[in-house]
Design brief:
The complex is a heterodimer of chains A (132) and B (676). Chain A is built from 5 helices and 5 strands; from the N terminus they run βαβαβαβαβα. With 132 residues, chain A is of the alpha/beta class. Chain B has 19 helices and 23 strands. Classes of the chains: A alpha/beta (132), B alpha+beta (676).
Chain lengths: 132, 676
């Protein structure tokens, strides 16, 4: 099965590394094809790479994750974007979802949780039962 | 069909269409119309025509029909919308609005034949079909929507969906939003409980109920939603009656209960087509997160709020009467009840919120009309249209805002020539900005007109004996500007050199204050005038200090009070005929509430007494009372005539023990009590 191509967006390199680590250890199901550290960069990389999945931090410099989500969905309305949020940002997450993000994960996150959420949002992966 | 039952519904639907048309048309006048906008205008005109015909309002139907025909030409590319014809449609739309007002007020409906003729003249090739007067349906695909059948032409089955989010799940509100969006992909959401606005507040309790019109099988939806992360259970029931009121949280036994995990559904992956998506022509899904709305008569909402208010009072009484020990069962029950009551109150208050945009078309129309009548060129910019306010506050603000606009256009903004000479752009500019600041709404209306001269106001105040010369001279600029809000002042000065603000500012200030708000005027001569109002976003339930004075109980809204203090008589000094107290750097004027009420403001003070500290503009006041009883949640009831004429009272509240407390408005109290 070809791995799902993922763009990881977060202004903290630490968080990006952590998500990459989780995705790289998911039995070859995901491949991180690019990273971005702010919303502007995320849009550019999205255009360039056409990833199948984007993990998107919310609070970022230059352009926040909600705006970036809106822009990316203009580029491709079918884009699958999952927000990464800290606790206490419920209003922002609600806004992101209503802007078109598919789901969200909450920091600090566990590998299981991330994979569970991502599995549900990919079209055709609705079973979520891929053996871990 | 007895159409009178549908009048309210017709009026609100038609109003919505007319206002949306107005907004589209004014955009069109400024920047031209996109194809999709022409389509939307066409659809709306078509809907109005159908509804008006069904109600038997023939003049409205023929006018909407004429508009529709012209839009039809544009849509098919026969013609392009020229500014002239856009202006004509705007006039037609304004006329529709006037007709609707007349229908609602049960007055004679203005015919508008001239407008119809003018529009018809623009579409010569369209044969003039008989106006859709009778019940004869149009031969045009979509049947005219019968009034009252707002959402019923979606014939898809309705499913009642109850969802419970796992307790302890992170961000349950965001999870609810995911569920909502997922359901929207598969059908039309007819109803949602709690209100979608609750989801972002952090107060969502994890239970959701939807009514969805969809062709998707119940089992499929149940597995779809039940399979989402953090969904503990999802029940889907079939065949909900359309008028079935939602009972959030009530369980429906015997329905399909799906646990967290399920299987199946693999044969039809998410996103598979399920019949046609809602056709673009159907516009029942409205803004605000594309949730469909349920229409409820406004008075029923008012009753509901009243009921919740009583419930809150009873709860507070119960709490006091029971006085449970910590850890007892009673305490636990009371706590739960308190949470429910709070949640209910929030829900009801949220339900009453409407975006400012809902009154903007009316404001734009007034500004446009008036500017045209006075031959002035005015640009009106409105910002913050998405900010929400209580429906009644919004309604109550329409008049004052129209008043303010009228003043700006009539008196504030100069003639084009005068503007040129002053080096200003020829078009006058008015900005309305609404913004939310914590728990207040700030509403600012500013113009770039000639401004108001506080010195001239001081002079007139003295000449017309509103104030002594000395008192007038003592006023700060800000206080002097407020002179225009004294009843009778502006009329007295209308013909004098005072420019900028005209009549009726007293009414504006009274209205704002009655709503629990405050008005400040800022102005700079030659530069412009700015009215700053702050308003509570919701009304009618408020926290207040209860205090006793002259044997009565009075409530003062907490929002108006900056603190409480204990005043010792021997620290009060006399200054300029006022009794003042030095507090650090500040001089605080001491006003005895009992004295004000009995008219004897010079009565001696007791040795020590409590007081409420508040500010009016730059000055501080201490309102002395006999006793401060404490803080309580009160339900504000408006005062009926003639008590409403007393500006020092903002309303009345019924207290837990059934006593009535008048709610004081400290700002007005100060005005009425200070010797001028």
């Amino acid at each position: 099965m070809t791995p799902i191509r993922v763009l990881v967006v977060d202004d903290a390199m630490f968080m990006r590394s952590m998500i990459k680590d989780i995705l790289n250890n998911a039995s070859g199901r995901y491949e991180v094809v690019g990273e971005a550290s702010n919303g502007r960069e995320a849009i550019a990389r999205f255009r360039e790479l056409s990833p199948e999945l984007v993990t998107m931090d919310i609070v970022m410099p230059q352009l926040d994750g909600i705006e970036a989500t809106r822009e990316i969905l203009k580029v491709n309305p079918a884009a699958v974007i999952v927000m990464c949020s800290a606790m206490g940002q419920e209003a922002l997450v609600v806004e992101s979802i209503s802007a078109g993000a598919k789901d969200f994960i909450v920091k600090p996150f566990t590998s299981d949780r991330v994979l569970q959420v991502l599995a549900k949002v990919m079209p055709g992966a609705s079973g979520g039962s891929a053996a871990p | 069909m007895d159409t009178t039952d549908f009048l309210d519904l017709f009026a609100s639907e038609a109003r919505e269409h007319i206002e949306a048309q107005g907004a589209l048309l004014s955009r069109g006048l400024a920047a031209g119309l996109e194809r999709e906008e022409i389509n939307e205008l066409f659809r709306r005109a078509h809907s109005i025509k159908g509804m008006a015909a069904a109600m038997g309002f023939t003049p409205m139907a023929s006018l909407a029909h004429a508009m529709e025909d012209l839009l039809h030409r544009w849509r098919d590319g026969h013609d392009h919308p020229a500014p002239d014809s856009l202006a004509l449609l705007t006039r037609a739309n304004d006329h529709l609005s006037a007709q609707l007002d007349a229908v609602v007020a049960k007055h004679d409906v203005p015919p508008g034949e001239d407008v119809v003729q003018a529009i018809r003249a623009l579409c010569p090739t369209v044969e003039t079909r008989p106006a859709a007067g009778g019940a004869s349906p149009e031969a045009k695909g979509a049947p005219p929507a019968p009034a009252g059948a707002v959402a019923t032409h979606d014939t898809r089955p309705r499913l009642l969906i109850d969802v419970a989010i796992r307790s302890g799940a992170p961000l349950p509100g965001a999870r609810a939003m995911v569920i909502l969006k997922r359901l929207e992909e598969h059908g039309r959401i007819v109803e949602i409980s709690p209100a979608v606005q609750i989801l972002a507040t952090g107060r969502f309790n994890g239970r959701l109920r939807f009514v969805v019109a969809t062709n998707v099988a119940p089992a499929r939806l149940a597995s779809l939603i039940g399979g989402l992360p953090d969904v503990a259970a999802c029940e889907v029931a079939q065949g909900v009656a359309e008028d079935d009121p939602a009972h959030p949280g009530r369980r429906h036994a015997g329905r399909r209960v799906l646990p967290d995990r399920r299987d199946g559904a693999a044969d039809s992956p998410e996103g598979a087509p399920e019949g046609p998506p809602t056709p673009a022509g159907e516009t029942e899904i409205r803004h605000a997160g594309s949730i469909s709305t349920v229409r409820v008569a406004t008075e029923r909402m008012d009753h509901l709020l009243d009921g919740v208010g009583e419930l809150i009072l009873d709860y507070e009484r119960l709490k006091r009467a029971v006085d449970p020990e910590a850890g007892s069962e009673q305490e636990e029950i009371l706590e739960g009840l308190g949470r429910t009551v709070d949640g209910l109150r929030d829900e009801v208050l949220t339900m009453r919120l409407l975006p400012f945009s809902s009154i903007v078309p009316r404001l734009e129309r007034s500004a446009r009309d008036l500017a045209a009548r006075l031959g002035k060129s005015v640009d009106l910019e409105v910002r913050g249209t998405e900010v929400t306010l209580d429906r009644s506050t919004l309604e109550e603000m329409i008049d004052p805002l129209q008043h303010i606009l009228r003043n700006s256009i009539d008196h504030g903004l100069e003639e084009t020539e005068a503007r040129r000479t002053a080096g200003k752009p020829p078009r006058g500019r008015i900005e309305i900005e609404l913004s939310r600041q914590e728990d207040r709404i700030s509403l600012v209306v500013s113009d770039d007109g000639r401004g108001i001269d506080p010195q001239a106001l001081r002079r007139v105040a003295a000449e017309r004996r509103f104030l002594s010369r000395e008192a007038a001279a003592r006023l700060s600029d800000e206080e002097a500007l407020m002179l225009v809000t004294i009843p009778g002042f502006s009329t007295a000065t209308r013909t004098t050199e005072i420019s900028g603000r005209g009549v009726g500012m007293d009414v504006v200030r009274m209205r704002v204050q009655k709503l629990g708000g405050n008005l400040v005027i800022r102005s700079q001569v030659g530069v412009g005038t700015c009215l700053v109002m702050d308003l509570p976003p919701t009304v009618t339930v408020t926290r207040a200090f209860l205090c006793r004075a002259s044997g009565g109980i009075f409530a003062v809204p907490v929002s108006a009070v900056h603190g409480t203090l204990e005043v010792a008589r021997d620290r009060v000094q006399s200054s300029l005929g006022e009794r003042v107290l030095r507090r650090g750097e500040d001089l605080v004027t001491v006003l005895p509430l009992g004295g004000i009420l009995s008219g004897d403001t010079a009565a001696p003070f007791p040795a020590a007494f409590p007081a409420l500290l508040y500010h009016v503009g730059p000055r501080s006041y201490a309102l002395g009372v006999d006793e401060i009883l404490g803080e309580a949640l009160i339900v504000v009831k408006p005062l009926r005539h003639p008590l409403e004429l007393l500006p020092q009272y903002a309303g009345a509240a019924i207290l837990n023990d059934g006593q009535i407390a008048l709610i004081l408005d400290p700002v007005n109290l100060t005005r009425t009590s200070r010797p001028a």
